[in-house]
Amino acid sequence: MDVEIPSDRRDGDVDWSELPADLLVTVFTALEIPDLICRAAVCRSWRDHYSSTRRLGLCRNSHGPCLLTTSPTGVATLRRLSTGNLYRVPLPDMPPSADTIFGNPYHHHPLPPLRDRYVVGSSHGWLVTADELSELHLLNPVTGAQLPLPPLRSLAPVRLLFRRNDLATFYGHSIRDITPMRPEHNPRVPILIHDAAETRYHLYQRAVLSGDPSSSSSSSSRGRNCIAVVIHSPWNLLSFARLGDATWTWLALRPDCLGYQDCFFDDDDDGLLYAVRSCGEIQTIDFSGSAPVVNCICVPLKHSFDRANYIVRAPWGDILQVWRSFELDDGEEPRTYELAVFKLDLATEDLVQIKDLRGHALFVSFGTSFFVSVNEFPVLTPYCVYLAHDSIKCRRFKHIAKEVRVYNLQDDTFADQYTQSSWKNCPPPALWFQPTCIRMEQVNMEILKFLRCMVIFN
C-alpha cells in the first residue's frame, strides 16, 4: 500500500489517527484483548474503530490464557502465556457500598477492587471477589467495572455478630449447620465463628457465572438471567442468585445437595448447571424454570479426603472430570502429586480415564476450568493440564495450594511454569484467566489514561 506523506511533515512526525479505517479494523481483528485495549487507547480515532470492530462482531473469538495476579498497591497483572509479557493495569478505588445494617453504613471507606480482595472464582472474563467484610462483588479486571451480589447476611448458614454491649457494631459472622440430612445438625449452634475479614477464607469454595453480566444491564431480561452460583461452607453447600436479586437462595431440594466441589454452566442461555461432588457424583441443576430441578447423571464413584474434583465441558462435547490429589511438601505446603482426567460415559454413567486432549491444553485453578487450542496458541503443550492456585476443598488440608505447574498426561510428569518468587506471595490467589471482548465505553477512564502509556515488559 502506497501512502502519500505531505511534504511539509517532518521525518517521523506521523499522525497515527489518519491511518485508513479498513487497515485498522483488519489489524484489530487479529489482536488479543490486552493488545487490542492498548491500541484502542492510542487516540480517539483508534478507539472509535475498536468500537466499530466490536459492534460488528469482528473481534477474534479465541483469546490466550493469562495468569492473573495482583499487588498490594491495587495493580492487576496479566501475564500472557503466549508471549510471557506482563500487562499492569491499575484498578482505581470504587465508591462505598450503600448497604446498611440497622440503618448504619456497612462500608465506611471506598472499596479497593483487588488490593484487599480474595478471589473466589472467575467466569466470562469477570472475577468473583470477596472484600474486607467478606461481601461478594463481580469485578472485571480489564475495565475496572463492578457489580454487586446479594449481601452475605442473606446466605442461609450465615448470621451476623454484634458486640454484646453495642448492637450497632458489627464485627463478624457465625456459620451454622443448616443441613437437616445430618442427624447431629443443630442450626442454633454455630460451628464456625470468624471476624468479618476472615470469613471469606473459610466460607467460600467456588463461584461461577452463567454468562457475561455486562452483556446487558441488570434491569433487562437478559441481564436478570445471569446467575451467580456459590459453593460454600458448611459441607460445601450450593446457593444461587440472579443478577439484581436481593438475597441468595440455598439449593436444598435433596439430601445429597451437599459436598459440591466444582460446577459450570453448559450454555449462556439455557440455565443448566453441571456440578461435581466430592464422591465423584455429577448432578445437573436446571435453573430455566420457576424452581431448580436436580438430576444425577453419574453415580457416586470414589471418595478421597486428599483430592479436589473439577468438572469441565470439552470442546469436542465430552463432560470431563479432573481429579487433583494433594500432599504436603517439606515446607508443610499442599502440592499436587497426582492428576487424572476422565470422560463421562453417559450411557453407563462410568468414568473412563483419558490421556489425549485432542489438540488442546486444559487450565485449572480458582476460576472456571477452560480449554485452549494448541493450534491457535503453539506455545502451549498438547496433552497438558496447566495448574494454578486453588483452595484445598478436601478435609485433610485447610490451605491454598500455591503452585503454578504443568502436568503432562502422556508421561505423568510435573514441571513448574514460573519461578516461585514471581507468583507465590501475591495477595489474592493467582489464577488462569481469559479476558473477553468488551465495549470500549465500559473501560474506566482512569484505566484508559494509564493504558495510553502502558509499559509492556518481559
Describe the model.
It holds the Pfam family F-box-like. The longest helix is centred in the N-terminal third of the chain and has 12 residues, at 44-55. Residues 1-5, 100-109, 217-222 and 439-458 have low confidence and may be disordered. The strands form 9 sheets. A 5-stranded antiparallel beta sheet has the order 32-1-2-3-33, with helices on one face. The chain has a single domain (62-457), classed as 7 Propeller (Methylamine Dehydrogenase, Chain H), CATH 2.130.10. It has helices at 21-28, 33-40, 44-55, 196-203, 221-224, 445-451, and strands spanning 66-70, 75-80, 86-90, 100-101, 104-105, 118-123, 126-130, 136-139, 146-148, 158-163, 166-176, 190-195, 204-209, 227-232, 237-242, 249-250, 260-265, 272-277, 282-286, 293-298, 307-313, 319-328, 334-345, 350-354, 360-364, 370-373, 384-387, 390-391, 400-401, 405-408, 413-416, 431-433, 456-457. It is mostly beta strands and 458 residues long.
